[in-house]
Amino acid sequence: MPIDIKKDSLQLALKKLKARESVMHQLEAIASLGSWEVDLKTMTSTWSDESYKIYGIKKGTPVGLNTFYSLLLPQYLEDAQKLLTKAIKGKELSRFNCQIKRPDGAIRDLLINGRVIEDAISLKLIGTTQDVTELSTIKKEAQELSELLEHSSNEIYIINSQTLEYLYVNKGACKALGYSKNELMKKTIKNINPYMTKYQINIIKKKLIHDNTVLNRTIHQRKDGTQYHVQSYIYKLSFQGKDAVVVFDTDISEIIALEDEHRKQRKLIEYQAYHDPLTNLPNRVLFQDRLQQAIAHSKRNDEKFALLFIDLDQFKKINDSLGHPIGDKVLIETANRFQQLVREEDTLSRLGGDEFTIILKNIKDEKNTATAAQKLINSMKKSIEIAHHQLHISASIGISIYPDDTDSQEDLIKFADTAMYKAKDEGRNNFQFYSIEMTKNAVKKVIMENNLRIAIEEQQFQVYYQPQYDAKKEKMVGMEALVRWNHPHVGMISPMEFIPIAEENGLIIAIDEIVMQEAMKQFSKWYKAGLYPGKLALNLSMKQLAHNHFMTYLKKTMKACNFDPLWLELEITEGQMMQNPEQSIKKLQKLSKLGIEIAIDDFGTGYSSLSYLKKLPLHKLKIDQSFIRDIPKDSDDVAITKAIIAIAKSLNLKLLAEGVETQEQKEFIVEHECNFIQGYFYSRPINSDDMEALLKKQNQ
Fold first, then answer.
1. Does the pLDDT of residue 7 top 70, yes or no?
2. Which tens digit of pLDDT belongs to each residue from 537-552?
3. Domain-by-domain residue ranges, the chain?
């Protein structure tokens, strides 16, 4: 059978054509690219499958130019028609970007390319349509992002990782640094980061190897030389085919300033927490810490150290009389003087008030400590001049030794404090080392104070009376009320044991009020019974007199007891009165206006000024028994007693001699015109029953 070569060749060609057509369809689908042609004579169109898909029209639907025009968004119609006319004339269709609205309502971005083909038979327009919606979206977003980066207030840089040159800088960077874009692009990061070292750059590079993001703080230098702090966020990326980093910098100068301020405030708060605000010395908290460290250090190195507890003598008088501002300056000057004497390794602290402590490290023996303590005492010998006042102040120092006295932190403080009070008892202006005997006395003192508080609550106090006589007439003219403590278990406790403690801790006010109330009540009974006991002399402490409610309490008590103010004589010691004479004068004048007489007790033992004596509303001076005890044998006591009598006469004051026990003493006193006497010569202090019996006997 003959072979038809032409037919086989034609079939083969058709197969190849179909295969090529299939490949073309696949390529169009992959590229989202549709092909089409338009017969410009018949105006009929042929679309590929992908074109139908792009335009959203069912495959096989008859289409033409009008189909295309109907899908175009209105703003593109006129341009499309013009381009077609131009293509027909020029035989070529230029690129045409447009948007269509598909039948399903979707808006798509298209890129159309075409060309006119003309031969003897036909005139055709062929071309392609590509759906570039996704690409347009990406370009739009990229443009928006580019605008955002360019106009961001942050500084944004893209930097070549190798050369450190700028590949891109935004307007925010130019504005912050004061450079134009051209100027900045010619520089490297080293030009605007003056403190960025090669080492730091390498550290950042190493971090970027393991992490795409690095956070860093640096300092930028502007064109004018000024500097500011920035926070950098650094990201690794590829840019223009180069290894690069993008840097987002934020000016954090205000944050840095706030951090610096907070840091200063924190340091200040920490400093204030551990230092005394007045003297800038370590306070009690820091002292406790340093003491703990000293114990640990000395224990580890087998060393000794001394703890000095210092209290300024009579400092309260300065505060009370001249005011706290003057007192504060005294404390500052004292701290300065002490500071000059301590070594760098020692610790000088102010615990509060006028109390200071010193930790003397690594002492060899007590002699070293004694020398140091004496230097501190000597440093206070020079007067302190403040606001035209020349102030003289001294210090009492107590010393405990680690580990000789104790290895306990608490006991070291307690023992040094105990020794300091011993120094006070020894006359002040000295130092004392701790001894066990001191603790025994201190414990006894604490027990006494606790018992005193119980005694006040349980009314364990009794009032005794010591008569006062007119020695010429041999007649009782009054009596002094004296307190006695009748302890339920111990019995009578001497006033010499508990009065100093009561005065020290302020309990004397409550005790004086008990005595006042009881004595006034008893006196009123005696007057009502017609026994005429004369004047009631009550001891008055400055603490009681200075108390705000004293005048109110006194008036209230006199009224409650039906006690006449003319029956009362209040005694204040010379030493107490001179602590604050101006205040004493004002207070005592108020008492005198009530009809109450004022007497100075223990006269001659203090340092009164005659000018103050003239101003005080005084009625009587009481010669202290220390001057009476050895007269007429002791010539000095005789001279002092005569001088006191002369002062009383010159000031027109009554006189009373205390502690008269012998006939010789009585005769001397009377001979020198002091007629009033109080003492064992006439009577010891006696209870109210015995006094009542004495009054009845006198009135017979």
1. no
2. 998 877 777 777 888 8
3. 32-134, 151-255, 275-434, 448-698
